[in-house]
Amino acid sequence: MKIVQETLGTIIEYIPKLISATDQIVEKLQSEKQQEAFAILVQYIEGLQWVVKALTEIQNLGHELNIDTDEVNTFLLEIEEGLKIGDYVMLNDLIEYEISPLLSDWLKKVIAFEKDFSW
Quick one: CA dihedral 38, 22, 46, 90, positive or negative? Predict the structure, then answer.
């Protein structure tokens, strides 16, 4: 149980960093600084994948967080497609209007779960 508690704590610390990175990526894309945006995006995707894996593993242990991590996989595929075709508007919209609100929702759910869970 301690590992679950520690992982939840790390997720709670990390999601706000991802949300902040979202803002940075959006700002860079909107000011046509694609290379800077891509540098942040690589780390962003890695962090997002870690959060998804951690949440999935916690849920696989039987802890119900009511978080559907599969949705992010769809967004990651769409990000990849946006990068391939150079559609930075789509990329910007996905990150700003889909992923960022999703991360905020996940953060609320993880905080509520951690608060209510009996350790």
Answer: negative
> What ranges do the domains of the chain cover?
2-116
Q: Smallest Cα–Cα separation from 9: which of 49, 1, 20? A: 1
Q: What is the pTM of this model?
A: 0.90
Is residue 107 within 8 Å of 67, Cβ to Cβ? no
User: How far does CA 27 lie from the centroid of its chain?
Assistant: 17
Q: Cα separations (Å) of 52 from 37, 60, 118?
A: 22, 12, 23
Chain segment 43-79, per-residue pLDDT in tens: 999 999 999 999 999 999 998 899 999 999 899 999 9
Strands in the chain per DSSP E? none
